[in-house]
Design goal:
Elements (H helix, E strand, L loop, with lengths): L3 E2 L6 E2 L16 H4 L1 H37 L4 H27 L5
Antiparallel strand pairs: 1-2
Helix pairs in contact: 2-3
The structure holds zinc ion.
Zinc ion binds next to loops.
Length: 107
Amino acid sequence: MFTHICKGCGLQLSDTDTHCPECNMAVPQKEELDPLTEWENEYSKVRFHWIISVVLFWTTAGITAGLFLIHGQAYINELAFIAAVFMALGVYLKTKVLALQRKKPEK
Ligand SMILES: [Zn+2]
């Protein structure tokens, strides 16, 4: 699941490596299995996706409003549909963010 990168030389290591074959630096094993670290990785990933969907929603909503002012009804249906999809995605990801917040492991 995790890709280890050697802190010494930046080489990609396999999950089974305990030492880097290039520079022989020890690979930290325990850190990757820490549930809090795993949770933080997952949380920041989901939160990032949520922020992207919110930004895309407002971008689409802004374009929809802008085109409405310029062209009237022309592109409204398609763009409003795309905006609705991003909004649904945003709501879905927000519930995932909230669910993850409740599941935060104790140190
Ligand atoms: Zn190395």
